[in-house]
C-alpha cells in the first residue's frame, strides 16, 4: 500500500491538495450530459434493485455520492488509496462507503458475482499494472455485469505537448528545466497504453467488448465491457 501511495503522489506532482482540487473542479465536466446519456442507455439497463455498484479510484467520493443518490436501493462502494483524497471525502448517503485499498493488488473482500456495474475513470494509467485490478473486477461482477473504463491513451509527443502548451511555449523557449521534466514524465504516464492495449488486457481477463468510443479528440477512450453469461449459469 505504501509503495502505491508514494507512486500516486509522484504522479500528482507531489501536491496532493492540488490533485484533489483538480479532480473536484473537473467532476462536472467529466460527468456531463453526454456521459449520463451514455450511462442511461448502455449501463443502467443491467442495474437491478439491490445490486452492488463500484467506483475504482473514487477520489473524494463524488461519483460514489452521485450513484448512491441515483440508486438508493443499491450498495455503492468506492475504492481509494491516496490519503489526501480520503481526508476530504464528501458526505455520503447511508448506502455508500469508501474503502482504503490498493488497486495494484485489490484485497477488499467483495462477494463474487455480486456487483452489477464497476466504473474506473482516469485511473488505469496511474496503476503500475492494471491486470490484477481487472481480474478483481471480473470476479466481483455478476454475469452480465458491466465494467466501464475511461482513460487517457497514447498520442504523439507533438499532439501531447501542443495540447499542454497551446501558446507554443516550447518553441519560444519559455519553459524551465523543471517544467519540461515534469511534462515529459507525465507524457510517459499519460501515454502508457494504446486503446488496443487496454482492450487486450480486458479481454485477456475474460471480458467481452460492448462499446468503444474515442473522447477528447482521441486523447482518451471509453470502453464498456461485459462479464459474459456462460451457458445461462454463473461465469
Question: What report would you give on this structure?
Answer:
- The chain has 235 residues and is α/β, with parallel strands linked by helices.
- It contains ten helices and seven strands.
- It has a seven-stranded mixed β-sheet with strand order 3-2-1-4-5-7-6, with helices on both faces.
- Strand 6 and strand 7 (220-226) form a beta hairpin.
- The longest helix has 14 residues, at 177-190.
- It is globular.
Counting helices, strands and paired strands, the structural category is alpha/beta
Strand order of the largest sheet: 3-2-1-4-5-7-6
User: How many distinct beta strands?
Assistant: 7
Strand residues, percent: 15-25%
Q: Looking at the structure, what is the overall shape?
A: globular
Instruction: Give the distance, in angstroms, between the N- and C-terminal Cα atoms.
Output: 30 Å
What is the element string, with H for helices and E for strands?
A: HHHHEHEHEEHEHHHEE
Radius of gyration: 18 Å
Give start-end ranges of low-pLDDT stretches: none
Summarize model confidence as the mean pLDDT: 92
* Residue share in helix: 25-40%
Number of helices: 10
Instruction: State the major sheet.
Output: 7 strands, mixed
Task: Please supply descriptive tags for the structure shown above.
single chain; 235 residues; alpha/beta; seven-stranded mixed sheet; 10 helices
